[in-house]
Write a structure and sequence with these properties.
By secondary structure, the chain is an alpha+beta fold. Helices cover about 20% and strands about 20% of the residues. The strands form 2 sheets. The protein has a 7-stranded mixed β-sheet. The chain has a 3-stranded antiparallel β-sheet with strand order 7-6-9, with no helix packed on it. Helix 1 links the parallel strand 1 and strand 2.
Length: about 280
């Protein structure tokens, strides 16, 4: 692949522009998208859970990397990132070939000092390595910089323009570009682009918040119905609940009992009639 730098866009970039760059390059960085005050709140809320999370059991997960999920339940402030207008607007455009989309996973990834580079991969391989047709995208993903991302501390590495490449290719670190960005910035990338966490050669931990979305006819990687307890779900806005999966996927997927709208499980009397599907408002 031809090595090219990762495009950086300003915090007020339009969703149309972000989606266009992802379509071409597979990834783009939007600088300083989230206020630092919000990132501080998320850090305070997640700190006890991050500290209690064990490191990964294998090379892919990283034996010096902690992966803490269930962000919606554990960090109320992270919901603002999940529902960020630019994230939802970009995803809606990038995955517009599907009837609707849903939240795929929420995860804080803390790469500790001395961690080696993660194997280069495609996130969409999570779907049992199914060979989706080239150009048919099933994921739109974000990684929010909870700390500054530098090449030294393990910034995510991306093989730019590999989103249209053949499947199951192998790449080396030298084929990638580091997604260096300031705290509060966000890396937007497709499920088809080859990428991986970089090696952390610094003395500090690099933390990113991985919040991803997928077409609603595919299974979610993180089970939101179990990750977010029922008593917490009942307090959440309807738009967030639908994004979490309390909605039909495509025409009829996911209805409950007598063809009822899934939102009825936590919001009785608010569901649509028939097989209509909804999308969260921006």
């Amino acid at each position: 692949m031809v090595r090219v730098p990762i495009v950086h866009l300003p915090h007020d970039a339009r969703a149309e522009v972000v989606a266009e760059v992802i379509s071409g390059d597979g990834a783009v960085i939007v600088d300083r998208l989230a206020p630092l005050e919000l990132m501080d709140r998320v850090d305070d809320e997640l700190r006890p859970f991050l500290d209690a999370t064990p490191t990964g059991p294998d090379e892919f997960s990283g034996d010096k990397t902690r992966r803490t999920g269930s962000l919606i339940a554990r960090s109320p402030s992270s919901r603002e990132l999940v529902m960020h207008p630019l994230a939802l607007g970009t995803t809606r455009l990038f995955l517009s070939h599907a009837t609707n989309f849903q939240l795929h996973l929420t995860q804080a990834i803390a790469i500790g000092p001395g961690e080696s580079a993660q194997p280069i991969h495609r996130d969409q391989w999570a779907f049992d390595f199914f060979p989706f047709p080239p150009g048919y995208e099933v994921q739109c993903n974000t990684i929010w910089a909870q700390t500054d991302f530098t090449e030294e501390n393990g910034a995510t590495r991306v093989v730019l323009r590999s989103n249209r490449a053949e499947d199951r290719l192998s790449f080396e670190l030298a084929d990638t570009e580091p997604a260096e960005m300031a705290r509060g910035s966000a890396l937007f990338y497709s499920g088809s682009v080859y990428h991986g966490g970089g090696p952390n050669r610094s003395g500090t931990t690099r933390i990113g918040l991985n919040i991803t979305y997928n077409v609603a006819w595919l299974r979610q990687e993180e089970n939101q119905y179990l990750s977010v307890p029922r008593e917490v779900a009942e307090t959440l806005p309807t738009e967030l609940l639908r994004l979490m999966g309390y909605d039909r996927g495509a025409y009829a997927l996911g209805y409950i009992d007598d063809l009822r709208d899934p939102i009825e499980a936590v919001r009785p009397g608010t569901g649509s009639v028939g097989f209509a599907v909804s999308q969260p408002e921006e």
